[in-house]
Amino acid sequence: MRGADGYNKSLFSTMRLEEFVPQAHPLRQVRIWLNEALSKMDAKFSAMYEVEAKGGRPSIAPEKLVRAMLLQVLYSIRSERQLVEQISYNLLFRWFVGLPIEETVWNHSVFIKNRDRLLEFDAVTELFNATVETAQKRGLLSGEHFSVDGTLIQAWASHKSIRRKDGSDDDRPPGNWHGQPRSNQTHESKSDGDSRLYRKSNAAPALPSYLGHVLYRAVEPVRRYYDVRSGSPMIDCVFQQVC
User: Fold this and answer.
1) CA-based torsion, 125, 129, 130, 132: positive or negative
2) The pLDDT of residue 177
3) What is the per-residue pLDDT across 38-59, written as a single tens digit (0 to 9) for each?
């Protein structure tokens, strides 16, 4: 018997957002860990908004901001505009962020403004430290046998944004930059001035990038320390932070 291609627009639904998320979905455990770390940052969040506590509209809850930022990293979402769009119609994302289905998602520009406040007050670093502390209390970390891994993190900037530092370039982006000598001493990106030109090997192109370092133990599920730099790597500094 052929089923009818009908669509019943129900006015009410008795299902909760959590019921749409499979029990074995990895984001369930991630959310538990994340919420435990966020609970330790209540004083930090209160201090961030202390100046504006006497007036003004309520901000986006910092806890929701952090969850949304983590989704952007885990799912490699390229822009805040796309992130906000996906939170709007993706039930999994709405549940993870803690946004009720009847609540309107934020504008992407509002999200960026509130996110910058988190970065300004170094809340992301404190969140990372709180996560490591939670893992330490659960016996998941050890003080022995550390390893350091490094990688290049490509910046969100293209070669067309590379200009001479002395401003001798014209305003038009070069049509073909191949064969033109460029170095970090003479050129920089106008869209991401903190990035530097790096290459993985002589056979790979030099791209605007950052140097990323992670400290971990091979048998541990949690990374102990991270470090992102635009200049030369400083491994000794990484060890001094945790040893």
Assistant:
1) positive
2) 60
3) 998 888 888 888 766 566 677 8
In a domain, 5, yes or no: no
What burial letters (b/e) apply to 35-49, b meaning 16+ CB within 10 Å? Answer: eebbeebeebbeebe
Using only C-alpha atoms, the chain has a radius of gyration, in whole angstroms, of 22
User: CA-to-CA distance for 3 and 113, rounded, in angstroms?
Assistant: 49
Q: Check: CB of residue 153 under 8 Å from CB of residue 228.
A: yes
For residue 127, the Cα-to-chain-centroid distance in whole angstroms is 12
DSSP string for residues in 176-211:
--TT----TTTEEESS-TT-EEE-SSTTSPPEEEEE
Give the pLDDT of residue 114: 87
Chain centre distance of CA 50: 25
Q: What are 51's two structure tokens?
A: 């100046």
User: Can you read off the two tokens belonging to residue 231?
Assistant: 């200049």
Q: Which residues form the domain of 84? A: 17-134
Tokens 């300004």 correspond to what residue?
120
The pTM of this model reads 0.68
Alpha helices by DSSP H, the chain: 26-38, 42-48, 62-74, 80-89, 91-97, 108-120, 123-137, 235-242
pLDDT per position as a tens digit, 171-196: 665 555 666 677 777 788 877 778 88
Residues 122, 149: one domain?
Answer: no
Q: Are residues 61 and 153 in the same domain?
A: no
Task: Evaluate whether 70 touches 83 at the Cβ level (below 8 Å).
Answer: no
